[in-house]
Amino acid sequence: MTILIKTPNEIQKIRVAGHLAAEVLEIIEQHIKPGVTTNELDHICHAHITHEQQAISACLGYHGFPKSVCISVNEVVCHGIPSDKTVLKDGDIVNIDVTVIKDGFHGDTSKMFIVGQPTILGERLCRITQESLYLAISIVKPGIYLNTIGKEIQKFIEDKNFSVVREYCGHGIGSSFHEEPQVLHYDANNSSVILQAGMAFTIEPMVNAGDHHIHVMEDGWTVKSKDCSLSAQYEHTIVVTNNGCEVMTLRKDDTIPKIITQEMYA
């Protein structure tokens, strides 16, 4: 396993790409309402990335993916393909996953949106999932085992009687969309990787209201919870600093600092 340590210049490029990815999630929010199709949302995101940002959508054409963003509704865990057939309705929970390429570097992020009036379960699932991401980010610093991230996420989620999807994970990121290391969101207890300053990766827990098992649909992309329970995901791109981490995809609605500093011990 080769984990690339990013240079200050590369980190700055990830910072720029991350800011643009976050911006897409900020501008799309006003368009998420009952009656809108996920394909309409994809068109808006694509136009903003290509025309306003003069950037590239990493998803479009990636291994054949046909759209510019992934949009996953309710029981769809991830990789939902925007469609004219998927019409948002009151109470839906919606994940939009955006990856922007700018000057050859990637910024990758996603968040949940609630359409109209939330259900009690939908609101709680989204809130707990975001809290698990914030918890994971808050412990990142040089010297800890990478597996600590997954261990803390799993404990937090299962204490809330939800479950963590096992089959998909966070990943290193930079000039490539997916790099080493893999960032698991559960306690696999098999990682000897120790975090170092300059590592760049995503943390993106996928949390089901029911069982953690999933099913991939016939299109080869759309992933649903096997028991059709609601699923939520939040994702940020982060870079490990000398004494904590920096969140490269921070949005205005986030409630964590962009730069997190921790006390370091010898």
Write the layout of secondary structure elements.
Elements: H1 8-28, H2 38-52, E1 56-57, E2 70-73, E3 76-78, E4 93-102, E5 105-114, H3 120-139, H4 147-159, E6 163-164, E7 170-172, E8 179-183, E9 200-203, E10 206-208, E11 214-216, E12 223-225, E13 231-233, E14 236-241, E15 244-247, E16 259-261
Antiparallel strand pairs: 1-4, 2-4, 3-12, 4-5, 6-10, 7-8, 9-14, 10-13, 11-12, 14-15, 15-16
Helix pairs in contact: 1-2, 3-4
Explain what you see.
- It is built from four helices and 16 strands.
- Helix 1 (8-28) crosses helix 2 and helix 3 (120-139) runs antiparallel to helix 4 (147-159).
- The longest helix is centred in the N-terminal third of the chain and has 21 residues, at 8-28.
- It has 266 residues and is an alpha+beta fold.
- The strands form five sheets. Strands 1, 2, 4 and 5 form a four-stranded antiparallel beta sheet that branches.
- The model has no long low-confidence stretch (mean pLDDT 96).
